[in-house]
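Changelog entry: the Tyrosine phenol-lyase record was regenerated in this release. Current contents:
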Amino acid sequence: IAYPPEPWRIKMVEPIKATTREYREQAIRDAGWNPCLLRSEDVAIDLFTDSGTSAMSDRQWSALLRGDEAYAGARSFYVFEAAVRGFYGYEHVIPVHQGRGGENILSRCLIRPGTHIPGNMYFPSTRAHQELNGATFHDVIVDEAEDPQAALPFKGNVDLDKLRAVIAEFGADLIPYVSLAATVNMAGGQPISVANLTEVCELAHAHGIPVFLDTARAVENAWFVKQREPGWGDRSLAEILLALCAPTDGAVMSAKKDSLANIGGWIGLRDPVLAEQARGLVLLYEGLHTYGGMTGRDMEAIAAGIAESVDEAHMGARIAQLEYLGGRLDAEGVPIIHPIGGHCVCVDATAALPQIPRTRFAAQTLAAAVYVDAGIRGVERGGVSAGRDPVTGENRFPPLEFLRLAVPRRVYTRAHMDVVADSLIRVHRERDRITHGLEFAYEPDHLRFFQARFRPV
Ligand code: F0G
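Regenerated structure tokens:
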């Protein structure tokens, strides 16, 4: 399987602590079988998330020194604003401390109790803010997104008939906006095509409904458009990124993903009235409207990171690394979600551990087993992440139940990917030894996967 050389060299390193199997067994027990509660120093290869965990470049580190830490009107804000405007094309740029800060503010601005939000699959923090403000989320993604084996090029696309049905059922007046994502995290990092996104916007706009895009991984989405969507192969990632944003009314961004920063985010808007409303709430919840919870140096690092994120050598190497890892797992029969997405390789836990019922959280069980085997940390994306229905209080069991191995950008080498692949292959070969699933020992009310504790059962 091809593994192109990384288009960077390593200038600074962070030691990895070696641990024994016995040590890791104790560590995961102490963490209540939740890898999120492990100390990172006890993790050898950390694939919990690609969010805020990427390696910054020497240019980003030097940009930190340019940070203007003025409370109001910092120069760094204008550098940041120009980068977001230039690469994403939104006129009004409102800084927030990270993605969910923006989700909170957009949801508060637009959602009233009893309204309905259609979208291409839920993301936990996005839906949590929509529900906290009284909306019901409706998944209008194509059916194939829920089939791990359906190797469609754009599994993040919206099924327009499903969207039409939601509009027909509730009426445009009760739909404050359509909530789109590029790529779709909970489907395994699957992209949406420019054509589909544009059609969704046309349909929504025809009913007077605005469309907001989650751009956390829109550059990864642009890469897939370039590779897979007819007519886009000769366009640069920067051009495709602008084309993805162009038909939308705004965006919420976690700069911790594509933009190669450790923290930060923004809301991008076109409507000046909504922008004024959002700035007002930023003052209450995030910080002044020219820093939004970030330091000046954070904004400088993001501005530099945005420019680096659309570099094709960077993105090509990133996606090739994921394909290498996924390809090795696939070759050895470890069930993964196809095609391989933009930020992660996902192991289909229902297929890998059929002996563990959904109510015993197969993916959480697999996550613990993989940690014990070689100190690799992934994250559950299944029943635990889905939480409970706010109305009925019942557990939600989404069709997909998987262990996500999210790869930070520019952090790990091919040898690390081999350690991950070897471990997953070993755990899968010995899967019959996994006889117990997990049940909650402690279940938090919101985003329960972060702090939950479990016991084997
Ligand atoms: N939207 C998407 C698609 C995300 O993946 C995330 C975070 C957010 C919004 C929220 O952004 O973390 O900056 O507040 N995803 C991380 C993950 C946590 O591991 O997938 P945030």
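The mean pLDDT is 97.
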